[in-house]
Design a protein that fits this description.
The protein is of the alpha/beta class. The chain folds into 2 domains: 5-58 and 371-428, Urease, subunit C, domain 1 (Roll); 59-361, Metal-dependent hydrolases (TIM Barrel, Alpha-Beta Barrel), CATH 3.20.20. Helix content is 30%, strand content 22%. It has helices spanning 79-89, 107-120, 136-141, 164-172, 185-194, 204-207, 210-227, 239-247, 259-263, 268-272, 285-296, 312-315, 332-341, 347-361; strands at residues 5-14, 20-28, 31-37, 48-51, 56-59, 61-66, 91-96, 124-127, 129-130, 148-151, 178-181, 231-233, 253-257, 302-303, 378-388, 407-417, 420-424, 427-428. The strands form 3 sheets. Strands 1, 2, 3, 4, 5, 15, 16, 17 and 18 form a 9-stranded mixed beta sheet that branches. A 6-stranded parallel beta sheet has the order 9-10-11-12-13-14. Strands 6-7-8 form a 3-stranded parallel beta sheet. The two termini are 35 Å apart. The mean pLDDT is 97. The protein binds (4S)-2,6-dioxohexahydropyrimidine-4-carboxylic acid. The site of (4S)-2,6-dioxohexahydropyrimidine-4-carboxylic acid has 11 residues, from loops.
């Protein structure tokens, strides 16, 4: 079969320079072949024509923190429903967390998860290996993985590694990236006692308070500096942590923030109750502002959704029996583009935070930019029409979003994964499969 050629014409292209230029993109097979101004890119007569008039073309989103629940928790989500949600949301690659069942803590389980992903995922995939107090050898050798995940707090069972004595050997051994969920478990447990019996979900943000997050981030930073170990701080949630990193962030440390920690705060408990419950919890409006400024200033490097679906039935349990977590992959790009439209940031910054920066941080070659030679992971969005988030439109198995009713712009119209059109104006090509990502010298 001849290599397929496609020509995306007349798109407003978000270039690697940050300029938005009207132009054409030629794709040959799975790669971008040419990018040029309108009419300057020639394609063969049998190339598939994609008219992108009026649409914005961005690099596909790389979501570097998701929980897709398979294997073991498929009643909440599975790799098919999650990646259909990705395709609809313009997410062309994801990095997934190890708290599936069995836990992703050995090569054997990682290998099995990769095989499942090859079978089911509509977009590209990578998986973290989870740290326990006992699996140092696996953490050194597991392959391929985007990095080691440590739950310093907010978890139960084997994935919780919550004392300095247990965490330090992980920093001291090997060289690959360590990503931390930074909350101090001892403080959380003490505060749980203090607030016992209270059922208002807003208490969640007081139990797992800013100080609990700060203390764990301080410990992770201390160990990272001691061993000069590559550290990534997941879902930074507080202004005080952002201020700390502004003062003290070694070159080998990166940090991310979720859209929800930028645009939601503790007021959300009053409107959506336990649907607003996540770890680390939502904070104050002042925290929203400080996190935004840190993102704009480059103190925070990129965006991740922490897509963590639970069923509505599970979420309906009274606090504290309700589980923490909210879905995010199909709303993250429109949420951020709506912020850009409102003047909070630029479209180029959104593309940097959601594509180029995570690719660079995890050493994912050939992704995150629209340039010749890069993989054709692309999303065409409508940056003019405003449409609300609706429950009926959602692909995630959990079937709800904390943003229902929010009027958003920048909804994906078409998503391409390695040159294959996986989503096109409401239709999915369910035969498309993503590929395993590789991670530089990780
Ligand atoms: O809210 C959360 N839910 N935060 C996490 O870190 C884990 C996640 C989950 O897996 O449900």
């Amino acid at each position: 079969m001849a290599t397929q050629e496609q020509l995306i014409r007349n798109a407003q292209i978000v270039m690697p320079s940050g300029e938005v230029e009207l132009g054409d993109v030629r794709i040959v097979g799975d790669r971008i072949a040419d990018v040029g101004s309108v009419g300057t890119v020639t394609a063969s007569s049998d190339a598939t024509d994609i008219d992108a008039t009026g649409l914005l073309l961005l690099p596909g989103v790389i979501d570097p923190q998701v929980h897709f629940r398979e294997p073991g928790l498929e009643h909440k989500e599975d790799l098919h429903t999650a990646t259909r949600a990705c395709a609809k949301g313009g997410v062309t690659s994801f990095l997934e967390m190890p708290n599936t069942r069995p836990l992703t803590i050995t090569q054997e389980v990682l290998t099995a998860k990769l095989a499942l992903a090859a079978e089911k995922c509509l977009v590209n995939y990578g998986f973290f290996i989870g740290a326990t107090a006992e699996n140092l050898p696996d953490l050194r050798t597991a392959n391929p993985t985007c990095g080691i995940k440590i739950f310093m707090g907010s978890n139960h069972g084997a994935l919780l590694v919550d004392t300095e004595a247990a965490i330090e050997p992980i920093f001291a051994t090997g060289h690959r990236l360590i990503a931390v969920h930074a909350e101090n478990q001892a403080r959380i447990l003490a505060r749980k006692q203090q607030f016992a019996g209270q059922t208002d979900p807003a208490i969640h943000s007081q139990i797992q308070d800013c100080q609990a997050a700060l203390e764990a981030t301080q410990l992770a930073l201390k160990l990272s500096k001691k061993y000069q170990r590559r550290l990534h701080i997941l879902h930074l949630s507080t202004g005080i942590e952002a201020d700390l990193l502004r003062q003290d962030k070694p070159a080998w440390v990166t940090a991310e923030v979720t859209p929800q920690h930028l645009v939601l705060n503790t007021d959300a408990y009053g409107t959506i109750g336990t649907l607003a419950q996540m770890n680390p919890p939502l904070r104050s409006q002042q925290d929203n502002e400080t996190l935004w400024q840190a993102l704009l200033d480059g103190v925070i490097d990129f965006i991740a959704t922490d897509h963590a679906p639970h069923t509505l039935e599970e979420k309906a349990k009274p606090y504290p029996h309700s589980p923490s977590g909210m879905p995010g992959v199909e709303t993250s790009l429109p949420l951020m583009l709506t912020q850009a439209k409102a003047g909070r940031c630029t479209v180029a910054q959104v593309a940097h935070w959601m594509s180029a920066a995570p690719a660079a941080a995890y050493g994912i070659a050939n992704k995150g930019k629209i340039a010749p030679g890069y993989d054709a992971d692309l999303v065409l969005v409508d940056y003019e029409t405003v449409a609300p988030v609706t429950r009926q439109g959602l692909q995630t198995k959990c079937g709800w979003s904390p943003f229902e009713g929010w009027p958003l712009t920048g909804w994906p119209v078409m998503t391409l994964v390695n040159g294959q059109v996986v989503y096109n104006r409401g239709q999915f090509d369910l035969s498309v499969r993503g590929r395993a990502l590789s991670f530089g010298d990780n």
